[in-house]
Design brief:
Elements lengths: L2 E3 L11 E3 L6 H15 L82 H5 L22 H21 L10 E5 L7 E7 L6 E8 L6 H19 L9 H13 L18 E5 L5 E4 L18 E3 L16 H16 L5 H17 L4
Parallel strand pairs: 3-5
Antiparallel strand pairs: 1-2, 4-5, 6-7, 6-8
Helix pairs in contact: 3-4, 4-5, 6-7
Organism: Phyllostomus discolor (pale spear-nosed bat)
InterPro entries: SprT-like_domain
Pfam family, one: SprT-like
């Protein structure tokens, strides 16, 4: 049977060597063994690395001199020129930081220079400026005699008309219509003003209507500021055709209004008015106050929403803080005392007949000083 010998290094032996089994040719076998031994112990290049260990034990290290046998106990491992640091201190292993997968997210940027904020102009400085427009009456309008106290209720319609004419000339360049629908609204309890814009399909004209709260705008300065705010809405719809509530167009007209009249407060989106209620209820526990325009709360059935405490009606006060003394007119007091008596005497009479009878009796008692 032929014996096939394959070498590990393909560069030296390209083809397998086939040996025929022959007892007579022992010299040829000995020569072949001699050649194989020379092949295994021949020196190799330093760049070539064996793919498998030559010895049977893979854990045995290779010696520096390949000419010596691997199992030779006298063989010594040759160490290259560099020496191992055995004498010095062993330094601890330092954990290297993990590399980031995406290096663009966390960039080390040097901090920018600190920039001091610009000093804002105090609002009191703007309030001290005057518009220098002839006939302007906007500064301290709430202190004028014709628009304070009882005169305010009489002249509030005239005040709205004068304000509209002034704003149309100085701010909107007389581009708004001469007559604009401005109404008083009793149902707006917290909203100061409302501008409703419509578009008629028949005439293809834009229309606006301004509502001013009668209960929130209870002074001349509040009417002035609310009307300026709502006219900016009206101008953005009538002149530019934009219905956005407080967009760039509205801000443009609001800024223009403050530039034309620097004595006015800034035209903002919301008001911060303290609503002057006529009647206040106070909680006996948390002392919270609830404002109403009429005595609409029943203290026997209603409680505080936060602590479920009992509500008590507070005495009436004016805007300046002075208490209002309850005053009953003498005729009302006379009617309260004698209405039932006269009603029983006049069974088939109407309410008007009873009141006429009471008025005659009141004048008689007033002349005789018997009230």
């Amino acid at each position: 049977m032929p014996i096939v010998i394959i070498s590990d290094d393909d560069s030296d032996v390209d083809l397998p060597v086939i040996i025929e089994d022959s007892a007579s040719d022992e010299d040829q076998l000995a020569s072949i063994k001699r050649e194989m031994m020379q092949f295994t112990i021949s020196p190799r290049n330093s760049s070539d690395t064996p793919s498998q260990p030559l010895s049977g034990n893979p854990s045995q290290p290779l010696s520096g001199n390949p000419s010596q046998p691997l199992n030779d106990p006298e063989a010594k491992l040759e160490i290259p020129g560099e020496k191992m640091p055995t004498d010095g201190e062993v330094l601890p292993a330092v954990d290297q930081p993990k590399k980031r997968k995406c290096k663009t997210k966390h960039l080390c940027v040097p901090p920018g220079k600190l920039v001091n904020p610009s000093t804002p102009i105090p609002f009191s400085f703007c309030r001290n400026l005057n518009c220098n427009i002839p006939g302007c009456f906007l500064r301290d309008i709430e202190k004028l005699k014709e628009y304070t106290g009882r005169n305010f209720k009489r002249n509030k319609d005239e005040l709205v008309r004068r304000l509209y004419v002034l704003f149309n000339e100085t701010v909107f360049d007389k581009k708004l219509p001469e007559k604009l629908e401005i109404c008083w609204n009793k149902k707006m309890l917290r909203t100061a003003g409302l501008c409703s814009s419509t578009h008629s399909s028949k005439t293809a004209k834009r229309q606006t209507k301004i509502d001013i709260s009668l209960k929130v705008c209870d002074s001349a300065d509040r009417i002035r500021d609310t009307l300026a705010h709502e006219l900016c809405h009206a101008a953005s719809w009538l002149l530019n055709g934009i219905r956005t509530s407080h967009g760039y167009t509205w801000k443009y007209y609001a800024r223009k209004c403050n530039l034309a009249h620097p004595e006015l407060p800034l035209v903002t989106r919301f008001h911060n008015y303290k609503i002057n209620y006529k009647i206040y209820y106070e909680c006996t526990r948390c002392k919270a106050r609830i404002g109403r325009y009429s005595r609409s709360l029943d203290t026997e059935r209603s409680v505080c929403t936060s602590c479920k405490g009992r509500l008590v009606l507070l005495p009436l006060y004016r805007k300046d803080g002075t208490p209002i003394k309850p005053h009953v007119r003498p005729f009302a007091k006379y009617v309260k005392q004698h209405y039932r008596i006269v009603r029983k005497r006049m069974r088939n009479a109407t309410h008007g007949d009873v009141m006429r009878k009471l008025s005659k009796g009141y004048f008689i008692c007033k002349k005789n000083n018997t009230l």
